[in-house]
Amino acid sequence: MRLVENIKQISLVFSRGFFFFETIPHFQLFLRSELTKMNGFEIFPFISFLALITLISGRIFFLKRKGINVSSESGKKNQSGIFVYSVFLLILLLWLFELTKFAFHFSISVLPEVLAKPLNQSDLMKITGVLVTGFALVLLTFTLIHFKNSLRFGLDEKNRGKLITTGVFAFSRNPFFLSLDIYFVGIAILLPNLFFIGFAVFALVGIHFFILKEEKFMQNVYGAEYLEYRRKVHRYI
Length: 237
Fold this sequence. Notes:
By secondary structure, this protein is mainly alpha-helical. It is built from nine helices and no strands. The protein has helices at residues 2-22, 25-37, 40-65, 79-104, 113-116, 123-147, 175-190, 194-222, 224-232.
């Protein structure tokens, strides 16, 4: 009984607090203006990116807790590779800034108007973008689960996991990269300007070339087992 009374008192305090803030004209106007500015379609791209990062980082943390190193230990980096990754990182940061700007209505403008101007603002495009992006996150979730303990970042023969051929990997050899491709396409549909469309194309091309490089690595490391798997399952779908 005492616990119930305490809960009621706490609820009463919170309700009075919210009522107090609502009676303040400036706070009420600010709250209404912010809710008016922001809608689900605007905040969804930013929230989806947080979900993407949370899924991947959460899986990495889970594997590290089990004593599994998911990163490459080879340390071999050529100058061209460092340059390409640096350029991609800079463009990705710009992409993230534009994503955040769209969600929170920042007044700072980095891109020229011709790149930032929306090409289509129909509800059909927005709904399609949300569905495509959501599907990408679902696919990524299943991929990380089916990866089990074999998730690795980088190509290192000394730190390789077991070749996974079941689950979503029975339908695609690269469901992780496929989910990223679909995600970036979904964002470009949801935010259809030249910058986001161009970034999606850039990401798809870059990911494809990395897959080609990874396939050579997989063939050298797993040999006949991988060749048989490649014969049965397509690169993407």
